[in-house]
Amino acid sequence: MKVKSRQELYGKLTPTKKRKKAIDWCMRFLWLDMDSMSDGPFYELVAEYECIVAYPGDIGYNFFATPSVESIEDLPDPDEQMRDVRARFKEFQNAARDLLASFEGMMDQAGKWLKVDKTMQFTVMVGPSGRYSITDEDEHDFEYSYGRQIAQLLKGNKFNDVIRRCPVCGHYFAVLTKHGKQVCSNRCASLQTARKKFDENPVSAKRRRNIETYFAIRKKKGDTEAGLKSSLRRYIRTRGYSPEEIPRYIKVFIDSH
Q: Can you tell me the distance from the alpha carbon of 86 to that of 184, in angstroms, rounded to the nearest whole number?
């Protein structure tokens, strides 16, 4: 799979889009299952980190850089290199989760501070109003790092003004506009709407649970895929289900080839 070039990932972005893309990456990264990612998407994840999150300036940083070698035998083993990078990114992910949890835990503790970058004396503090401020004794701009991307997002804001948890899936997401998003994605917005609709209609909610239970039982009994699709279609037809009463994942299963 072709990985997007640095020019595609960074060079053509406006400062606003670059900032949004970096924050979107930071939020998405917290919940990714890197063990289940195939090599192509993982390479792209790393490339985005190198080009947008770690270094907003295109100065270059390559986890998969190829060293100078005297012969082909001296090249690193690709599988071993991939395992090493995945392990490093999983450690990085755990650190990112801990960092965001620390920032969240500070929000009601006026005067609480956290040194994000000890080398460059970069500190984040919560003021009496609950707004976050930053100090950078070495006067470095936000040049790199996950921690500084999040700190810049929090600067001058309260935590919940710019970072929230999705009530549907529980993932963190950033609020980057004045409209104040309530969920993390269009998918979760649709699920929230559907959930509200069925909560207001107990009959439809019960019918929805019935077909979910039927699907689970037939699947557990070991029906073939073709047989299960046929029985589901018959169940839906004989009981007069409307499209809105059928869970999306069952619709996808029935329509899959």
A: 26
